[in-house]
Amino acid sequence: MFKPLNQDIFLITNTNIDNYSNVKIFNDIPSIRAHLQDKQSIAFVPTMGNLHAGHLTLIKHAKQLSHEVVVSIFVNRLQFLPHEDFSRYPRTIEQDCVLLDELNVNTIFVPDEKILFPTHQEFLLALPPIADTLEGEFRPGFFRGVTTIVLKLFNIIQPSLALFGKKDYQQLFMVQQMVKQLNLPIEIIASETVRASDGLALSSRNQYLEKSQRSEASYLFQTLNYIKEEIISSHKDFASLQEKSMQQLTKRGWKVDYIQICNRISLAPAQNRNEPLVILAAAWLDKTRLIDNVEV
Question: Exactly one of 35, 52, 55, 235 is catalytic; which is it?
Fold first, then answer.
């Protein structure tokens, strides 16, 4: 069950992020709204920080689309379950600001929880059934937390464009549907997944992997590509293909949450290979949970 934010507030402390040559850094809502009020065509990239090449690709894309780019850095407690890694999620604000400064990003928004959640968050969106499938099945309340914070940030920044990566495919889908159904005047831009040389999708959580696990981690992507090739080669029994792939991962020591062949338009389980398809997966390699997807 989703629980509103309580008085346990996580604050940004011991940072020195005020002196960069190319960017303005804002911690409160009135000042960033005042700064952006006369800006045209704002491109927005929301992040949880600990920036890597995937984030930087999104930001570079944003800079191609608009002269005014805003990047937010906020680790959103609402999308973490009680047993998950909120407290140890990597926070590297100073390093992140250096990277953004080097990219000549215009504006960075780095709020504390007390700024975005001054009271208990009791007003929440009622989400469609798709929010309780795939990631939503294994992380109950995750998408309610995601959509809550994204809607808050959209309301504060008032962007014309917002960029999200395809690695978090269902999250991208949920944001697209929220914008569409709530008639928000924002264009959602999807950016391709950025991968390491062996195919592993870049993620802040990859740093949880032990050195001995790093080479094995790319096998999830290899598995999705195997399924893709089987579908292209006229394999029609999706259920058996999913089950076989899950068994292969399990034999290698993975704990699989799901592998699902879905319709890209609805994210419902696909029925045949003539649909626009995406293969989504989530699996644990010891204590590290990896997600990935491949479009067909």
Answer: 55
